[in-house]
Amino acid sequence: MTTSYEPALPLGTTLKGIWNGRTYTVVRGLGSGANGQVLLVRRGERRYAMKIGYDPLDHQFEVNALQSLSKTDTSFSRFLLDADDAEFEGRRLSFFIMPYIQGLSLSKYIRTYGKDWIYVIGSNLLKKLTELHRSGFIYGDLKSDNLVLREHGSVELIDFGGMTAKGRAVKQFTEIFDRGYWCAGERVAEESYDLFSFAVLIIKTLDERDAFRPALQELPQNRNISMLEDIVKSSERMKGLAPFLLRALNNRFASSEEALAVWREQAKKARGIKVPTERKDAPGIVLFLTISLIVLLGTIVYFYLD
Which residues are catalytic, by number? Predict the structure, then answer.
């Protein structure tokens, strides 16, 4: 099993799985955190993200949780591609393989495409959280560093080190996105915990006056939720979303499903735009258009022959 040793894997290092026998070559590092490091690796012509765990228990829990998710009918069903151990310089490393996802950070996406995209992004992120919650987990460590934005505002979560089974103590968090940090609730794995972090993420992203920074400098005994509420109420950018954000900060959503429905409705009222929903009707539309085209061509041929 993995120890707390943090391996330095140079470019070109090859790791071969002891149990599954698959070989991966290190391309470069992608990042590291409290419970592991993530590397860009390749196997043949394909590229993947490899996470090497530092703590054996944390790593195994993350693997078990991802294995559980892989059995669900969600967008996470193909996230875990491989899990194995490998030898490196006389030490055994535990790792798992994920898809390599390219995209932009949340802040860069908003700077590039405009702040109105926050409505679409928020909707897509809440859908992801809802899938996790239905599967019995909360994400736990929701923050901008753990998001990748792709085309049309689609959102991918890329680190599941903080994922925690509902009802347990949150196992990993980042202070400014944690409701305990703001004296706004306990660090218990429940849907409202993720929704609080979601609200702080939106506030931090839309904070045009940089009002967030002074609040972070307050002493712990002086820090409270009213500081976040004041930022929301005084922000022109957040005016349309203020009712949603204040509810989330005060843990007043019964579930993430309710939060998603309210977010979509609030977004439409705020900007008069329709936030995308799941395109379950897309195959029906394609079939309808195909049949219509066939009928049209048949009619043309009929009149031409006639």
Answer: 141
